[in-house]
Amino acid sequence: MKLKDSKTEEVILDAAKVVFMEFGLYGARMQQIADRAGINKALLHYYFRNKEKLFDRVFENALARYFQNMEVLLDESLPIIDRVHSYADRFIDFLAEYPQMAIFLIKEVSLNQALFEEKVNRHKMEKASLILVLNQGMQRGEIQPLDAMMFFVNLVSLCTYPFVARPIFKVVASKNGAQWGLDRNLALRESIHEFINNKIKIL
């Protein structure tokens, strides 16, 4: 029996990531993934019997990567504000790798919320929560009072929307003699760090 090659599997997963991010679980087709990976459909089915199993691997990999980024929030050797800055940087890195993740999640959660919750709960670390860390910091008198939930919503929005709306921003930029692409990530980071510094005040 032919052994599965790890490099071929990696090529398939990379191709599937792009297709699933664009079309979602229900819109993606195995033939699209095979074409993008540069293999035939039979070989694709040899590695992954069906679309659902392939989707599970791609989604699990993305969630694992995201929750790994959250581990910095648990590093109590760092001041809270430094942990938040580091979390924001890692979140932007994650979105740069998975630029369609926000749209993808909204679409998939609306179709099957139970499945999404099941997968998140499999990875989630109870204490690795930005809201929890901020609330603990306020309780300990480390930072000034703030609405932790609203801070979380604003921070996630600032990080994700530039990736979600990139096609719109590119059109607007081109019509105004400017550019909008991955090279704007540095400016994006700077604006987000400025937001964090303005909202989190150390006591």
Q: How would you describe what is shown here?
A:
The protein is an all-alpha fold and 203 residues long. It has 2 domains: 49 residues, Homeodomain-like (Arc Repressor Mutant, subunit A); 140 residues, Tetracycline Repressor, domain 2 (Orthogonal Bundle). The chain is 73% helix and 0% strand. α2 packs across α3, α8 runs antiparallel to α9 and α9 runs antiparallel to α11. It is globular and about 60 Å long. The chain starts with 5 loop residues before the first helix and ends with a helix.
Descriptive terms for the model:
single chain; about 200 residues; 2 domains; Tetracycline Repressor, domain 2; 11 helices; Arc Repressor Mutant, subunit A; mainly alpha
Précis, in short:
This protein has 203 residues and is mainly α. It has helices spanning 6-27, 30-37, 41-47, 51-69, 80-97, 101-111, 113-123, 130-139, 148-164, 166-175, 185-199.
